[in-house]
Amino acid sequence: MLADLRQLATAEAFGDLLETASHLDEGYNVPAVAVAVAGAVLESSLRILAKAKNVTWAGASGISKINTALYTANVYDKVVHGESRRGANSATVDHGVFAQPADVDAGAVARMVGGVRDFVARFR
């Protein structure tokens, strides 16, 4: 029961972070910030899912490595793996240097936030 309560609290916190990311994307700040927040939520969600399914990986962790480990362990199918991989690729945008907010495609950011929201809802 404690694990269920923890999952509920985590899902609520991630929902709040994703809500923050979606508002940051509405012109209040550089869209890359929204990507960074959504990427952090995705990585944390993948870690929680891996722990719940007893999936491990070697070396340092990251979105791509955990995503591949979950796919290899048959936690989810190739479609979900691909969606998560695209989310991971979008999350790398926050490591770039952007002269202006227009340097990041706001539509792509919105799609990433929506995709992460869907992932968290399906696999919490």
Instruction: List low-pLDDT spans.
Output: none
What is the CATH T-level topology? Four Helix Bundle (Hemerythrin (Met), subunit A)
Specify the oligomeric state.
single chain
Total DSSP E strands: 0
Shape call: elongated
Radius of gyration: 15 Å
Main β-sheet: number of strands, strand sense, barrel status? none
Q: Give the number of domains.
A: 1
Helix content: over 70%
Structural class: mainly alpha
- CATH architecture descriptor: Up-down Bundle
Task: Indicate the proportion of strand residues.
Answer: under 5%
How far apart are the termini? 14 Å
Task: Compose a concise summary of this entry.
This protein is mainly alpha-helical.
Question: What features would you describe in this structure?
Answer:
This protein starts with a helix and ends with a helix. The protein has one domain: Up-down Bundle (Four Helix Bundle (Hemerythrin (Met), subunit A)), CATH 1.20.120. The chain is elongated and about 40 Å long. It has 124 residues and is mostly helical. The protein contains five helices and no strands. The model has no long low-confidence stretch (mean pLDDT 74).
Which key phrases capture this entry?
124 residues, mainly alpha, Four Helix Bundle (Hemerythrin (Met), subunit A), 5 helices, elongated
Topology:
Layout: H1 2-28, H2 31-52, H3 63-72, H4 78-91, H5 106-123
